[in-house]
Amino acid sequence: MAARRHATERLPAAPPADPMNAPEALVPAADTPVPDGQRAAVPLRKRVRRLVMQLGPSRMAATLAFLLIAVLIARFSWQMPLIDAAERALYDARAMLMAPHVEQDKRITLVTYNDETLFNTGIRSPLDRTLLANALGNLDQMGAKAIGIDIAFDSPRPDDDLLKAQLRAMKTPTWLAYAEQASNPNTIFYEQQKFLEGFIADVTTDRTKPTSVLFRTDDDSVIRNWPDRPKNLPPLMSNALAPVDAAHANFQGNIRFLVPARAAAGQEEPVFANIPIDAFALPMDAEMRAGFAELVKGRYILIGGDIIDNDQFNTPLSRFPDAITGQHETMIGLEVHAHMLAQQLDKAWTRPIAGPALWALAVFIVLAGGLTSLIDLRARWVALAFLGQMAFFIAFPFWLQGRGVDTTTLPTFGWAVGWLFGYAAVGTAARTVGSRQRAFAQSALGKYLPADVAAQIMRDPDQLSLHGERRNIFCVFTDLEGFTKLSHAVTPETVARLLNEYLNRLSDIVLEHGGTIDKFVGDAVVAFWGAPISRPDDGEQAAAAALAMYQAGEKYRVDLAAEDVPPIGMTRVGLHVGDAIVGNFGGEGRIQYTALGDSMNTASRLEAANKSLKTGVLVSAEAAARSRRDHLVPMGRVTLRGRAQPVDVFTPRPDLAPDQRERIAALVAAHGAGDKKTYVTCATAIQADFGQDAAIMFLIKRLNETKEGESYVLS
């Protein structure tokens, strides 16, 4: 059964039929003259409010869906096909243009096999190890801080014993490249890995140890970030050569690439000195070693290959022509290690942008696009706002990059696309809103009246006049015990939050059962069934809702127990059926769709009687007869407070077995019939079974205090 829309607030005065008083349509009206002769601009806040009020549900849903897509693009563009390529290009531009321009780093020296070395030795692969052994022998005596060798000894050579002897004799901390097939399946196969492991095991000492040379490239084969550190691998070369603080031992942010400070022709000085290994492999005496020591002493020495088409990587700098050569240069892996080592030595760790901040930026940018489409100003101001936001998209990421923020996850291109989507979504919604009168009717009727009433008034506008009609309705009143005490013990904000949550739960139940919410009175809910449209199952639905509201209140008590607030009592519910006057009531300034009459008062007093009768839900006999509920238990006859006519009342007890409910009914029937013997027998048996049930025990007490057919007067 479809839920009926409810009247939850008092209504503003019924608007006159004069179209001049209707709210303006969203489309711009004709220019209105103002003292300076210019058209009066509509405030942005007002335009937004109009748009929200005037959009229909389907258009609102479509607009929100489009805005959601825009937010997702503005947040996850790095993970989206095609867009991710644009994001990488923009990041590479930031990394290049904001890269620090530095003098040559005197802390790190590269010692490399180059193509000339290979030509001179006549050995290409594996590399000449005699040359390396001789170079290590000299470097070991020149005072290097540490030596990192980015060469994998994964296949045998005749001069292995010479190199092994030198590695075992090293006094300088020396780190040997290690790779495994699991993490580098394209660079080493199983037999090579086994040979490499055996080679390293033969030379490992307290000074000579293995180091990981693992790199990770993005899908476009560009190195931008530090790699992960698989636990089965030795420390990464940069981390092995120099101490790294624990907080950054697994740093996986962007690599800070450096560019030379002097890039003019004839003044080329690379960031890291690159010396051919041949120079250090020559036989040297003490004097000759002293001459080379300036390039070695106190430095980190990285040894590897600088060979054409071997161990070459694309970096963000490769996307743009090199300032010295004018070519799109790749970078040898050894130099990538050098840049990472320099970043570590400088403690230039970039700071990632937190996920919530990226979400906030995505939402902000999409909203900015949407709001820009609603700006009602001169064209030059609109253009200025547009250009200002475009400048933000361009400049802000570069500013962050220059401030040491890791922008590898910053969706700058996604921001632009999200902004355009937001602009298009809101702008389209604004342009497709209906005419002024339709927008007014949609806003006035859809906002303030129940759906059924609104539909009637749309068909017949005269229905909006002040009048009422007699209807037979099922009335429900509720009250939350102890909420007043709680409201004095917590902050107003907490009171509002807790009350809204409670009322929301009860409102959903009324609507799910097809009821109309009349009003909220503090923590009380007033609802009715049978108006503005009556249905055959109104009684059944009202009774089911009454029990469900009580149960929701109990669930709310349990949920509230987890919070640091005073406990509250049960939700008491009263249900009665009778005639009432239902319609629009009020005056010229304010109206409300509501129900008035004795049946509403009776339902209210039934709710209050729960406290005396120790029950949670009380249903009058009239309502019980039409409820089609078989779990109702009679609770005797009472005279409600302020009433003269007695009422037979029932309470739902689905927790009792059918035979238990029948025994209680027999007890009440015996009392009403004056059958004392049957009454005593029933009361004795029930007392034995229900000694802990306060409501049943109080029922017996009341029956004991009244005579045949008498009602118990609630004072």
Summarize the helices and strands and which ones pair or pack:
Blueprint: E1 11-12, H1 44-54, H2 57-76, H3 83-97, E2 101-102, E3 108-114, H4 115-121, H5 129-139, E4 146-149, H6 160-169, E5 174-178, H7 190-203, E6 208-212, H8 237-241, E7 259-260, E8 273-276, H9 278-281, H10 286-292, E9 300-306, E10 312-313, E11 331-332, H11 333-345, E12 351-352, H12 355-372, H13 379-402, E13 405-406, H14 412-431, H15 436-448, H16 451-459, E14 467-480, H17 483-489, H18 492-512, E15 516-521, E16 524-529, H19 538-560, E17 571-586, E18 590-596, H20 598-613, E19 617-620, H21 621-625, E20 632-639, E21 647-652, H22 658-673, H23 676-689, H24 694-705, E22 712-713
Parallel strand pairs: 2-7, 3-8, 3-9, 4-5, 4-9, 5-6, 12-13, 17-19, 20-22
Antiparallel strand pairs: 1-18, 10-11, 14-16, 14-17, 15-16, 17-18, 19-21, 20-21
Helix pairs in contact: 2-12, 2-14, 5-6, 12-14, 13-14, 18-19, 22-23
Overview of the molecule:
There is one protein chain. The chain is an alpha/beta fold. The chain has four domains: 1-13 and 466-648, 2-Layer Sandwich (Alpha-Beta Plaits), CATH 3.30.70.1230; 66-90 and 351-431; 100-175 and 208-345, no CATH class; 656-715, no CATH class. It is built from 24 helices and 22 strands. Strands 1, 14, 15, 16, 17, 18, 19, 20, 21 and 22 form a ten-stranded mixed beta sheet that branches. A hairpin with a 7-residue loop joins strand 20 (632-639) and strand 21 (647-652). Helix 13 (379-402) runs antiparallel to helix 14. The longest helix has 24 residues, at 379-402. The chain is elongated and about 125 Å long. Residues 1-40, 434-439 and 442-450 have low confidence and may be disordered.
